Amino acid sequence: MSSKKILLIDDEKWFAMPFIERLKYDGNEVDFEKNISRGIQAYNTAEENGEPYNVIIIDLMLPFGEEVEPEKSSEFQEPGLYLLKYLREKDQNIPIFCYTVLDDSKTIAKINSLNAKHYAKASGRDEELFSEIEEILQF
Fold first, then answer.
1. 1: helix, coil or strand?
2. Residue 104: which pLDDT band, with cuts at 50, 70 and 90?
3. What span, in angstroms and rounded, lies between the C-alpha atoms of 99 and 133?
4. pLDDT grade, residue 22 (50/70/90)?
């Protein structure tokens, strides 16, 4: 597997750390951000510097952070879905992996409508979730 530049956005660093450590161990560059505002800023900065991310991994249960507020009329007012929509508007091709404790059919339909590469239910089983992440890194 070749080295990838990865943006991981999750408000719970304790949950993300095993993924970050393993991804780095495998030779990847991983940037971690704790909310949507910081994730958007990291994404935009990487694009502006000509060093875009190869993969983005997001937890759908995120705080917006400062400077971000969805449109009241948007069907994507949930923070993680808002971020997914924002990223898709910027880049239709970047692989995006989403995970969440939510598994209702409406959320899954919205994730699919925004063309997330993969979706997994965060169940506390790190190995299952990581095997899903490794799959997306194989492109």
1. coil
2. confident
3. 10
4. confident
Distance in angstroms (rounded) separating the CA atoms of residues 84 and 119: 12
pLDDT bin (cut points 50, 70, 90) of residue 73 is very low
The mean pLDDT value for 111-123 works out to 65
Burial class (CB in 10 A: 0-12, 13-18, 19+), 107: middle
Give CA 131 to chain center in angstroms.
Answer: 16
Please report the DSSP string for 21-50 in residue order.
Answer: HHHHHTT-EEEEESSHHHHHHHHHHHHHTT
Complete domains list, the chain, with CATH: 5-136 (3.40.50.2300)
